[in-house]
Amino acid sequence: MQITQCAIRAVLAIAFATSGAALATDGAADAAAMAKNVGDQKFEHIPGTPECMLGTALSGDPGKGPALLMAKFASGCTVPWHWHTPDEHVMLASGVGRVEMKDAKPVMLRSGGYAMMPSKHVHQFTCVSACVMFLRSDGVFDTHYVDTGGNEITPDEALKAKKK
Q1: What is the pLDDT of residues 52-81, one digit of tens each?
Q2: pTM to 2 decimals?
Q3: Where are the domains of the chain?
Q4: Percentage helix, strand, coil for the chain under 3-state DSSP, each rounded to 5
């Protein structure tokens, strides 16, 4: 069973390609067996995301296709309202996070909590208490930030607005 999760840009291809992640072309049998501990992972800031979020690719290349990522969030870190082209699956490994989705009540996720955002579904995530999560994308992973009216805005605009 594969675990998946939330929030990142197409530039992840650059950020994560250097992390030594195994590349999976189309999710086929090209993948090699592996085992990794969190402490052995190199977490890096992901361009176009809040500074309080770090990530690493566990498998796949999010700039080329399906991928499994791990992300760490500092308490209080928010990825502002956005959507992704592929479906996004999220499982919280530790901490407490608040998932808000368009036209739905907010949900507090705790360790083991899961959320799925279908393609182009507007959502945001706030880490309430130091979070580690797994994010699974079923295709090339991109992030499209939106303003309160649902209009697409640049990452700089979204992240600056969140700092205020």
Answers
A1: 999 999 999 999 999 999 999 999 999 999
A2: 0.78
A3: 12-24+38-163
A4: 10, 40, 50
Report the pLDDT value the prediction gives residue 31, as an integer from 0 to 100: 65
The token pair at 72 is 């760490």
- Torsion from C-alpha of 98, 7, 32, 2, nearest 10 degrees: 40
Q: What single-letter DSSP state applies at residue 156?
A: H
Q: Give the whole-angstrom CA distance, residue 53 versus residue 30.
A: 30
Q: Which residue type sits at 1?
A: M
Tokens of 160: 């600056």
* E runs forming strands in 102-143: 107-110, 114-117, 123-137
Spatial contact of 6 and 81, defined as CB atoms under 8 Å apart: no
Cα–Cα distances in Å, from 151 out to 49, 144, 148, 159? 18, 10, 7, 15
DSSP, res 4? -
Four-way CATH pick for 12-24+38-163: 3.40.30.10, 3.10.180.10, 1.10.287.3510, 2.60.120.10: 2.60.120.10
